[in-house]
Amino acid sequence: MKAQFRAELLKQRSTRTGLGLFAGMLGLVLLVVLLHGFGLAAEGLEGSSDQLMVLGRGEFLAVLFAALLGALSVTNEIRHGTIRPTFLVSPWRGRVVAAKVWASALIGAGFGLAACALAAGVGTAALRLRGIDVELDGGDYALLLAGGTAAAALWAAIGVGLGAIVRDQVPTLIGICAWLLFVEGLLVGDVAGVAENVGRFAPGALGQALSGQDPDTLLAPALGAPLLALYATAAAAAGWIATTRRGVA
Amino acid sequence: MTATRPTFGPVNDGRVQDEPQSGRAVADDSIVSVQGLSKRFGELVAVDGLTFSLEPGSVTGFLGPNGAGKTTTLRLLLGLAEPTTGEALVFGRHYRELDEPTRRVGAVLESNDFHPGRSGRDHLRILALAAEIPPSRIDEVLDLVELEGVAARRVKTYSLGMRQRLGLAGALLGDPELLVLDEPANGLDPAGVHWLRIFLRGFADSGGTVLISSHVLAEVAQTVDGVLIIDRGRLVASARLDELAGRGQTLEDAYLALTVRGAS
Predict the structure, then answer these.
(1) Which residues pair with residue B45 across a beta bridge?
(2) Domain region containing A165
(3) The CATH number of domain B55-83+184-264 is 3.30.1330.10
């Protein structure tokens, strides 16, 4: 397992995919936080919840890109055929999936930390430049960073699981984007009763809950963390089963 | 490309290569033992009751037309798919039960199983890490397949012949006893085919065993000691080349008589 883990880390480092995702994520974080920080009306940015929403865009994008990274660690191997040499060298497929989960979670955590730190730094600077009082304290910032890091790590594991179940690259990536960018938005949207009963238990909303965002609608971080970990475990286990049961073309 | 005679040194970590493995008793001393092997995909019977075995130190051609079931058989042998019935063993075990598969079996199933954006050397480093093979072996296999000069380049810049040799380098990392190659000469130019032929001969002469599939007879005719011919999933002939010669038959006669549909 340790050998497979080290091999997975080298797979991630030896192409430009991971670096490209990382750069794309940071660029989007910068764009979104600057747009919100400078574009929104000042009265919409005065409450701590509003400010957390702007700074939380880092967590949101980190989750998306970490999930894509995790999924790509499986679907790229299937797309390029490297899954064959991978399984010839390590015919214990469960170990390979586990190594992918841990390696992606580790890199996903790095994505989460970097995106949240950038969003917090740029967002706070934007508020100060506009003369808006920053209502967040050290605890809020700590939760933003720790929660965002954990959420991205867990979502990377979910991505690995989804990639191993779906296997085809394009449907996997489109599915992840559609879910996080569209479906989750509907679930915590304005339809009566949906957010309270369904939306806040969805995995994307749990990721936001982890970093302390929107406490009126979302669950407390202490409840969101184990629930999101449960999603990650279930996705990884399903990916593990799918990979060990099915043949390799 | 120069046709140097390859050498096959042991992996430099002091391990004994041919130490018998503990655990399940080995049924026989065949390197490959396939018994009543069948694989169905829905209605399609890809492999149908195949039985054969391979002895050490030989190069065996696994011949048959496109779609005869060669690749499926190799996938079953290497644990990438599960047989419907029967079994395929390497060194008396299922591939997945081998303690260190890369030190027993080296296999190349496709000529292009690489990430195009990764360098040839990184591709080998990944396999060596996963198989716990010392990094010094990477330079040895790169030297063996004559790719040391281009190892730092990304695979997308490689010619087909270079990719074939990089695949072979990966298969040789563990200094295996058995090489399983699926259509390794596909797309090679004449010099590449010549290089491969000399390479495989050297591997077998130093005690290795080779199973090489092909649908192009001419590619293997000069390299193999014996052939297994399959058609529509069934074994239709198994013979040593010298036996065929003794019967006054060329390999081509035998192959065409057995596999050309509608032949008289």
Answers:
(1) B40
(2) 2-184+197-245
(3) no
> A199: which 2 tokens?
């939306």
pLDDT of residue A74: 98
The label of the residue with tokens 């009566």 reads: A192
Tell me whether A17 touches chain B (CB under 8 Å).
Answer: yes
Domains held by chain A: number: 1
**Nearest C-alpha of chain B: how many angstroms from A76?**
8
A44: alpha, beta or left? (left if phi > 0; alpha if psi -120 to 50): alpha
Residues of A in contact with B125 (CB under 8 A): 10, 14
Provide the pLDDT for residue B1.
39
Burial of A106 (0-12, 13-18, 19+ CB in 10 A): middle
In a domain, A190, yes or no: no
Packed helices A169-178 and A57-80: angle between N→C axes, nearest 10 degrees: 170
**pLDDT one-digit tens code per residue, B38-72:** 999 999 999 999 999 998 889 999 999 888 999 99
List pLDDT tens digits, range A123-172. 999 999 999 999 999 999 999 999 999 999 999 999 999 999 999 999 99
With vertex at residue B59, the alpha carbon angle to CA B103 and CA B150, rounded to the nearest 5 degrees, is: 60
Listed by start position, the domains of chain B span 55-83+184-264, 106-176
Distance of CA A124 to the CA centre of its chain: 22
DSSP, residue by residue, B152-187: TSBGGG--HHHHHHHHHHHHHTT--SEEEEESTTTT
Tokens, residue B240: 């040593």
- Confirm whether A189 is domain-assigned: no
